[in-house]
Input
Amino acid sequence: MKNKYYDVIVLGSGMAGISIAAELSKELSVCILEKEKFPSYHSTGRSFAFYIESYGNEIVRKLTTASKNFFLEYSKSDSKILNQRGVAHIAKKKQMGKLKSVYNDLLKINNNFDILDKQKTLNLLPCLNSDNLEASIYDHNASDIDVNLLYSIYSKLFKSNQGKLVTDISIEKISYSNNSWNLITNNDQYRGKIIINATGSWADEVGSKFNAQKINIVPKKRTVFCFKPNNNISLSNDWPVAVDIEEEFYFKCENETILASPADETISLPHDAQPDEIDIAIGAERILNATKFKFHNIFNKWAGLRSFVKDNSPVIGFDKKIDNFFWLAGQGGYGIQIAPSLAKIASNIIMKKSNEFFIKNHNINIDLIDVNRFN
Ligand SMILES: Cc1cc2nc3c(=O)[nH]c(=O)nc-3n(C[C@H](O)[C@H](O)[C@H](O)COP(=O)(O)OP(=O)(O)OC[C@H]3O[C@@H](n4cnc5c(N)ncnc54)[C@H](O)[C@@H]3O)c2cc1C
Output
């Protein structure tokens, strides 16, 4: 059994793991250990692939906006990470109170939002059922996010810095001595100064194996299903994403297909999430009510876990109970769109660099995402 030493060992190869590994590999030797045979098999490979600055709580929104520069910087004219299409938060008559309170909240972030009346909303989304629509908030900046492209940019960066990714790993024994961690796995032995826990829904389970503190992460299952409407509605990739103002459902059109979600949040244990028929039936009913679509067949479906802690904000920082164990978890439903800023902030903490840029330019209060905020 070989014995390999790294400055940092990252556990988990989802968007969290690859983004922080890529950042750190610029200056440190980094290895990613992944339990599955393929990287990004869990939440990262199952997302709705959307970037919405008006999504999540205040700190999530700031982290999203702070990630935008990375997306623009690494985009080329023929391969953009963000492809703008907008999002319309749609409301029925009885939801107008909610629409107004959401709008007032959003204006605190920036001015990219307009309230559109029924007709203007229908001009953007002619598939909506006008009987169940009163108005919408239109967010101009919302975009499709090319998750594969983002992942491959980080992956290339990581590999070009001699980063090492090992899949199909099971950690069998953990010890800590002389300021370094020693992991005996099913194939090799890995030694490292710092462990980063980027294991998504498994974060507490993995943390407990290292005797770390608990962050009480709660995985929540979310379902996506795909259908092709069988009535004569001409579909367009230019339509904004439609999101119910109370997030009871959302959908977008991609290449003559509607990708939809009932926005379910079923509390789960960490596992390989699979879609349930009941969630698809609930989503289908909500979307049939809100639109003119007719459909009978669901031709694709999947589910994944979105993992949250109590305040729905991400969790980063060194564990208080044990040495050199760093948390990068709790990205909820935003782990793709906040990955660049979160990875940069976290890597600055690990490398003892300043986060002044994020504090000053984006008004980000790092205490609000610190792992020790619950103590
Ligand atoms: C249906 C759905 C829609 C979503 N839509 C969006 C969206 O539009 N925009 C957005 O920004 N976000 C979205 N998200 C959220 C986003 O996908 C997640 O926040 C993000 O992928 C989390 O990344 P992660 O790396 O933390 O977790 P994961 O991608 O789950 O990665 C964790 C990895 O850790 C590995 N692991 C676990 N235990 C161990 C161990 N003991 N040793 C080694 N490895 C281990 C796992 O195998 C896994 O590969 C969505 C999520 C879902 C489910």
Observations:
- The mean pLDDT is 96.
- Residues 11-17, 33-36, 40-44, 46-50, 169, 171, 198-200, 202, 206, 222, 224, 304-306, 331-337 surround flavin-adenine dinucleotide (CB under 6 Å).
- Residues 3-46+147-215+311-374 form a domain with the FAD/NAD(P)-binding domain fold (CATH 3.50.50.60).
- The two ends are 41 Å apart (CA to CA).
